[in-house]
Amino acid sequence: MGRWMKIISIVGVLFIALIVAGIAILKSMDFNEYKGLIAEKAKEATGRDLKIAGDLNLEISLTPKLAVEGVSFSNAAWGSRPEMVSVKKFAAEMSLMPLLSGQIEIQRVILEGVDLLAEKDKSGKANWEFGGAKPAKKMDKDDHGGGGDAALPVVHKVSIKDVKVTYKDAQSGADYALDLQNVDLSADGSSAPLMLDVNGVINGQTFKVGGQLGSIAALAGGDMFPLKLDIAALATTIGLDGQAGVPDGAPKADIKLALKGAALADTLKAADALSPGLKDIKLPVSGGFHVNSQIKMAGPTKVSLENLDAGIGDISVKGRVAADLGGKRPAVDVALTTDTLDLDKLMPKSEKKDEAAKTAAAPAADKGDGRVFPKDPLPLDGLKAADAKVKFDANKIIVQGMQVTAVKLGVNLNAGKLRVSPLSAGFGGGKIDGDVSLDASGKAAGLKAKIDVKGVDYGMILTQRGITDIAEGKVDANIDVSGNGASVRQIMAGLNGKSRIVTKDGKLGSAALNLVSTDLTSVFSSNDDKKIICGVIDHRITKGMANTHAVVFETGGLSVVGTGGANLADETLKMRVDPRSKKPNLASAAMVPVNIKGTFAKPDWELDAAALAGNAAAGAARVGTALATGGLSLLAEALVKKAGKSSGMIDKTDYCTPALAGKKVEPGEMAEAETKSEEKPAASSTEAVPAKKEEGAVEGITKGLKGLFGN
Fold it and tell me: Which of 499, 480, 476 is nearest to 430 (CA)?
């Protein structure tokens, strides 16, 4: 035994002697002699010059230290400065003993005074593209270089200071300057969390990142990597708390996001330093903003925002947003709810007025060919490019002073087939329901639309908009149409279906009469005259022809019947509106039919000359003069003032009953009205003007009527 102990002792002494001798040899070496060799190899690999101005120091011990100063690397020949990167100081300290177990353990890394320039020229060539580099050898799937999986190094402390990174792109004009004041990383061991503290400035905007990351062991083992960070930048604070990783080779994440800011305008102003033009955005809302959500990733293609709570000012939404990019087509699934969405706050009054003025001034037609329905192809390929499910619920939406309640919207897009259902809302005390689909799976789109309106109180709506004494009543509507085409114009040209609007048991207000003429107030003297018995607009649409089935508006003293129709293919109008008095005391008013013609873009109106000559010749000049001078008293001019004699034509036909029953309605026969001697015809506030000739009256009345419509 003693002999073996002597042998082991001798071997140990020799081993220690070899280590001591090796250390002595290494310490006696001048590593600066190798700077030229290092520069030469860098030149071969990159085609650029590497310079080491300072000493290359290596301290040999159980914790060897490497330090170098004054390192620079040349820029591309076309670059804006000679050096691409320069380093004032680099130092590292490493532990040798862990190497025996295959672990690389770095005690400390120090990096100071880095100046890096990354740039592109006008052709898009980057200065980090090295001409001298050789293509890397491709490795087989099972080829790991003979060394197996490499262990990640354990770094206990990293200290980075005074780092400047500049990026310039001559092609796009982008220019960024990043100054890292400090980057401090520290960990007590491979299984300990990594503490992080970063402070810097980018394009003049300060930012700060602090918190902790998962351990190096967790990262190396492919486990979920925890993180908890607090970020302050661009007038916002961002909190991230959760974990991410690639277990089993599939990326996963479950991270809680909390973002907030005092004012979005301040954030945009700060972000303008990174993306110019943001500060000029005019925001419709003000106040603080926030986004709280759970960010989840399940595999490389699935990501979602769960438990989303986002808002700005008084506007907030909650719900979920998810995307899956792994199928035949990208798919989006959105479900959002809001309590109150005030669109009036999103559209400031000044902007709304300006927009309204522009809309009124701009022609309704397409500038290209004078048509309303656009001929531009529908984005059918875009509808086929992705799938989507969208659900939106709102307790209340405010728009132009009106309240829309219980809003439910569902959108489903699958393989080019789009359907909007449900589409429902409460409005004006009534309800609106719809179902709209657009099948874009083929070369042309197939449209089907059904809209039902029940019990909407238009008096309530007018009051909400600040308009009173116009009319009272409720309206129902039904639209059921279908068509095919590759553009809106093609669809409308072949449209089929029906549209029907009905109101009954309403009342006209004095203000509505005054819109036409103050004379109407005296003509419609009784409440019965102002009572709206019914209003029906019923069209049947066949192959783009919208034919009038029934157009009726009837009060206690007046009936209005419309005939004709509209051609949706060439957008022309050919309609006739025929007003008729029902009572003798109203028969003295000028009841002159109006012909509506022209196009959708430029509609035109004219009085029926024959009807005017036959029924109103005696007072045509007075009516024409009143209209031309702004009186607009089509229904208020007394034509005949002969007590006990015929005072005009009346029509007592019941138009409402057949119209409400869905039957076709045509104008009926008129009869002369007889008044009693004590019954006076309606008075007029317009004095008589002698007529020179009948044609002048027609022209004057027509001119006045067109003036009513802005023509």
Answer: 476
